[in-house]
TrEMBL record:
Transmembrane segments: 66-89, 128-149, 161-181, 187-209, 242-263, 269-289
Keywords: Cell inner membrane, Cell membrane, Hydrolase, Membrane, Protease, Transmembrane, Transmembrane helix
UniProt GO molecular function: serine-type endopeptidase activity
Official protein name in the record: Membrane associated rhomboid family serine protease
Organism: Bradyrhizobium daqingense
Its membrane topology: Multi-pass membrane protein
């Protein structure tokens, strides 16, 4: 439409029909169609008509999820969840699983030969690891997973599945050894993945504050953040953030451990010595599992 509201240029010509018979009207229609088709078929030499400028469509970059779980950690969590279904068993059978797969220091006490503990000789070997797969209740399991998710995700991406599973087993065994040394004659079984989780946290802080890692100020994407070179242990211990993390971690474990023992030393005690054993194992043995080359001692400081 033009400014006065009259029709502007249309894609077909207007034909004024004279009054006449039916044949005249049909002829005009055929003429209109022919001329319209001719107008649509532009000759090859005619310049192409420019289309109006359209706004460029900008595709938004996909947003990275807040927390993505690597396959190894997902498998570990599923394993813990499936094993926890044992709470649905009859009480006597559930107690049997704890006695056979839980870590009992009294099992290694040769002074009491008449004490019969289910599991036999084999349990003296496998319980160094299997105890870490058992949990008392959903709160116990959920609390361990809550701490494992951020630190275990980075560690599983860095180590890969095989190294990750072996590392979790080694730190569990270190926690059981620390518990055995400090509770030599204890009869109560120890269960829970806390020692392994503590080891994963200790290993993760070896690179967590490095430039581009998941706790640094210049964080990269999850895959890149998990592969930044780790600092040597002697240099990492000079980082104020690492020292602060260590102080808070040890303080919380000792306070919660002593407080729980004061409430009920037999049933609700926290095996904080096992946590410390797993933590030190993860901190010191990290280099044996780490596939990423470390930075030189004279490299730039972490940020």
């Amino acid at each position: 439409m033009d400014r006065q509201g009259s029709p502007g240029a249309l894609p077909f010509p207007l034909v004024h029909l004279r009054r006449g018979g039916k044949g005249d009207y049909l002829q005009a229609c055929r003429s209109d169609r022919a001329e319209s088709e001719a107008a649509l078929d532009s000759p090859p030499n005619s310049p192409p008509q420019e289309s109006p400028d359209l706004p460029a469509v900008q595709e938004k970059a996909p947003r990275e999820p807040i927390l993505t779980l690597p396959a190894a950690l997902t498998a570990y969590i599923v394993l813990l969840a499936v094993i926890h279904l044992r709470v649905l068993l009859p009480p006597e059978l559930e107690n049997w699983t704890i006695d056979v797969f839980g870590f009992i220091p009294k099992r290694y006490d040769s002074s009491l030969l008449n004490l019969q503990i289910p599991g036999g000789t084999g349990a003296k070997v496998w319980t160094f690891v299997t105890y870490s797969l058992l949990h008392a209740n959903l709160t116990h399991l959920g609390f361990n997973l809550l701490w494992l998710l951020p630190f275990g995700s980075a560690l599983a991406r860095r180590f890969g599945a095989v190294r990750f599973f072996v590392f979790m087993a080694v730190t569990a065994a270190a926690g059981a050894l620390a518990h055995l040394i400090t509770h030599e004659h204890a009869v109560a079984p120890m269960i829970g993945a806390s020692a392994s989780v503590s080891g994963a946290m200790a290993a993760a802080i070896r690179f967590a504050f490095a430039r581009g890692s998941f706790l640094s100020f210049s964080r990269s994407d999850a895959a890149t953040a998990a592969k930044v070179p780790a600092l040597p242990l002697s240099r990492a211990l000079r980082d104020g953030r690492v020292v602060g993390f260590l102080a808070v971690w040890f303080g919380v474990n000792i306070i919660f451990g002593l407080g729980a023992i004061g409430v009920d030393a037999e049933t609700t005690s926290v095996a904080w010595q096992a946590h410390i054993g797993g933590f030190f194992a993860g901190l010191l043995l990290f280099a044996l599992f780490d596939p990423v080359p470390r930075v030189r001692s004279d490299a730039a400081d972490a940020s």
